[in-house]
Amino acid sequence: MVRSWLLLSLVGVWAVSGWLEMVPSTVPQVQSARWVQSELDDWLPGTFTNTYVEGSVLRLQPGQLSGAYQSAPFRTAFPFNGAVVETVVHATVTQTLTVEVRGSLDGQQWLAWQPFERAADANERTLGRFLAFQPFTMWLQYRIRFGASADSPEFDEIAITYISSVAGPALVDLKARPNWSGPPTLTPPPDVISRNDWSGGGLPAVAEHQQPQRIEISQVQVPAEDANSAATMRALQWAATNLYGQTDLPFHYLVNARGTVFEGQSSADVRLSVGEPGIVRIGLLTDVEHAGMSEVLDQHLTGLLAWLSEAYHISSTAMSAAQDAPLRLQERLSEYHAAAEHMTVHWQRFFPEGSPGNGLERLVLLNSEERDAYVTLIGYTSNSQQRHSLVVPHQQRLELTLNMVFPGVDVLGLQVLADQPLVAERTQLVKHEALSSSGLATPLRTWYFATGDTTDGTQTYLLVINPTTTVSTAELTFYPEDSVPLTKTIALAPEVRSTISLNDLLPNERFAWKLNATQPVVAERSIFTATGAASLGMGLEQLSRRWLFAEGTTTNGYTTTLHFLNPWPQRVAISVQVLTEDGTTVSRRYAVTGLAPLVLSINEIAPDVPFALDIQAERPLATEREIVFGNGRATTIGRGAVTPQTRWIFAEGSTAAPAEQFLLVANPAPVPVSLDVSYTLANGSVRHHSRTMPGTARLTIAVASDVPNQQVVSITIIASRPIVAERSLYLHNDGEIGGETTLGTGAP
Which domains does the chain carry? Predict the structure, then answer.
């Protein structure tokens, strides 16, 4: 009879490789034992249907084309939660053998039959895939079905290695943490249970690295209701290294039916001992065909794919299902491609300041791209997070009232994540005042503020988002106007918005200051005066030798003041150039004492004139501009630009009562510049207006003169040469005036 090795099922081919010395680790003890049946006395206690034993081999009775054999129940030596079946069989291509195994806790109530599916061949034996069982299973049973068109296949031996890996931490006791093993990304890294936590032990002492190029998703068939996936992980690892000849788990990550992500390898750039180099393998611990894919599994798998895609620059077209993956998984692959693309973050902004309990708050998102933007909002309260997902249609603007999106929240820091670039602005109305921010792009350990005041009833607050999962210790170094620097230490809780009253830390002082944190954080500052004036300032990410401000005026009771922080021990010389609207300039030179602030009134340099400012220093400094108006009941304090740009965008704006809006443009170059100013209105229409301005000058555009009575308007300025653009928005209510000035979002 012609014989061949029977390929019972192609679920996963795990290549056999050599052993590597393992790094010593404290892995919980895994118990294992084997139940072997290969002789006449082994087979006889079972049930025969059209089958018999010839010598020591199970086969069909003469003349029979089908039959079955079912073993007697076997009580194992100890409770187990996993098993691997090995068989020795002989069959031709016209003959079939099907093996199934089941377990029981008590020998009376049996779990469902699980099919034997080929995983590897070794030493003339066929090893089946890993079979997961309910923890503390004590009984085993198998059955064999024979089929043939002529003669009979032969079943020589079955060996079932059963495994107990429940010793060690249970899933319920483990906490997933952000996976920081890969390159830095905007896309949030997935929360994973590390190898050490589920007790996978150390990595091989010799680990070959790879450049991840594509992702392959497989299934490790496990009952969807598996209550202790941590024990299953330990059993899988033991089987891989002791039965399948692997050096370690053949997956970089595994995800169970509840969406828990386990770390299989320390990083995706570790090459596995199976498959081709460059593949990142993900295993799904579930039963896709019978239990489907849960919503939470979909969500966490998509997040993992999105993070891997950005971290290692893997295209969605380079994501595939393994050849042996269930059909339902293969059919859903295109959905995962699209979902991962939408979850991959290519743009983010943070807005630490927000107090919806104090007044109306809006977020405006402008999408100038040709496709819809998928956005996630993360709200940071004083003790928790909230998430919302939304879509910003292409070439449109979306306005959100944050009081409605996050109802009942008094403290609200905000993080906005998107799969493509947007322009964002957050506006807060506090009584007659308006506060505005275009957001901060990246958490950092150091932030600078050139202005702070805790005198005469003025309240200064530091607002910080700590997006990490650990407490950050921060040092606040204050540089008072009339005394030496001093430092205070604060703790910033993880994943919340913290509010720090600087009046409590440094009362009755005017000062500049900087923040140094042990973890990357995001910081803004708000100031409220006793007269009712309010301002919001974004932290300065960097010191600069040049600062440019398009807005400044000393007309009609307005005062403009520059605030400097020199964190260096040396005195720093600065040059302040005032650019007027007719191209006339006024320049002054000053020195900023080392480790000290400097407050400079522009009213004394250029009285009764609107202007822009070009400030240059021999060493990098922090600089902010303050404008006070409305008889001292309104103020705006904020940053300037460090580099002129040819394109500036403003998402927020209005020319309808009670709003009054102006664009301020600074041309620091000595040659004229041409401007194309485009206004996007509420109905989506765009109106273009052209301007020309002289060199070393400031231009003022009353927006209402171009687009009057528009409830909403977004603005893009494109210049023939690099410029700086700001927007001033004033609110007139019941005889009060308030407002804010915001630097646009620039692009080269």
Answer: 31-164 (2.60.120), 171-343 (3.40.80.10)
